[in-house]
Amino acid sequence: MTNGAFAFSRIPMYLGMVLVALGVAISLGSATPFAFAIAVFAILDRRFVIAEEGMLAETFGDERRGYRKRVRRCI
Question: Residues 13, 20, 9, CA angle at the centre, nearest 5°?
Answer without folding.
Answer: 35
